[in-house]
Amino acid sequence: MLKNLLLVALGGGAGSAIRFLFSIWFRHQSFPLATLLVNIIGSFIIGLVIAVSLRNSSFDANWRLLLATGVCGGFTTFSAFSAEGLQLLQQQRFGIFAMYVCGSIILGLLATWLGFSFMK
To answer: Which has the closest alpha carbon to 82: 38, 108, 44?
Structure first.
């Protein structure tokens, strides 16, 4: 358990640092390009990691924890959201998928607005 926690923490730290670099590199954009790129790249990477881990039995679970949970989790939580959404679609759980996507977006925006409003 401690080993798993350390792998996730190490990957999360790396992912967060890379995300910070993206925010510096793209800070002068009128469009939130850094966040968009981070979300797309993170979703792509987590898709790669999941596919490799499912197709290759020798792909160590530690690598999946480090890369998918750690790096992608620190880089962007959108990648986890995308992976879970894809899983629901693959399971043909379309109603749950719609509720998950709409709920995540709408409730996430509402929660952000509420948190912002409380601090005004």
So the answer is: 44
**Spatial CA neighbour of 6 closest among 45, 62, 55, 89:** 62
Residue 49 has pLDDT above 80, yes or no: yes
The whole-angstrom separation of Cα 109 and Cα 22 is 22
Tokens standing for residue 3: 């080993």
3-32 per-position pLDDT tens digit: 999 999 999 999 999 999 998 998 887 888
Q: What is the pLDDT of residues 53-73, one digit of tens each?
A: 888 888 889 999 999 999 999
Q: What are the backbone dihedrals phi and psi of residue 57, each rounded to the nearest 5 degrees, phi first? A: -65, -20
Cα 54 to Cα 114: distance, rounded to the nearest angstrom: 40
